Amino acid sequence: MNVQLFIPCFVDQLFPETAFNMVKVLEKLGCNVMYNTEQTCCGQPAFNAGYQDECRSVATKFVKDFKTFDYIVAPSGSCTGFVRNYYNKLFDNSAAHNDVKLLRKNLYEFTEFLTDVLHVTDLGATLNGVGTYHDACGALRECGIKEGPRKLLEKVKGLELREMNDSEVCCGFGGTFSVKFEPISMGMGEQKVNNATGSGADYLISTDLSCLMHLDGYIRKHGSNIKVMHIADVLASGW
């Protein structure tokens, strides 16, 4: 099975090890993994800030870069959800309509691809400790992803999975929201970290590094011992 990687900009620039771990997992499952080095951003930051014309320019390049019949897999529910749910609006009545339709059909968030396409839950991973899962808004609300990541984590040897209070509540990042409304954003982040530590977890795990980056900033500032981990990093642990 051929798999094209879509690596979001912030993963490429700040958390490349997660992308490599995703490749590690996919190759273990027999996928032929490919990466188009011409890829850039999906356009979500510009869209969320109200710059639809600028977003459309970036998204047009994205559609061309991922004009393929292969599966496309990304370590981000946020970016996946944006392409699936908003590209139709961006390219309504345009010549790119059919290419966008194909792209939306082929694009999957990483855990969704594992559970819904490959039908795999046990990767043979090992991580000792207690973990809790944060439902990222992009994954949960834009892609409908909830049970899949939990099924994957339940199969990780040595990891006890505990639900935190309000696991579905936003962490407060929201892209530019965290800049424009910093006090509210930090208050939401504090609540999320408190709920995670209150579960007794050693690891705060999610599908989206944007959430984890935001929460890790609060954790580092306030000296909490909990560690954030993308689920790809968890699934690549111990083997």
UniProtKB/TrEMBL annotation:
- GO cellular component annotations, sorted alphabetically? cytosol
Under InterPro entries, the record lists: Cys_rich_dom
Question: What Pfam families does the record tag this protein with?
Answer: CCG
Q: Recorded GO terms, molecular function?
A: oxidoreductase activity
Q: What is this protein called?
A: (Fe-S)-binding protein
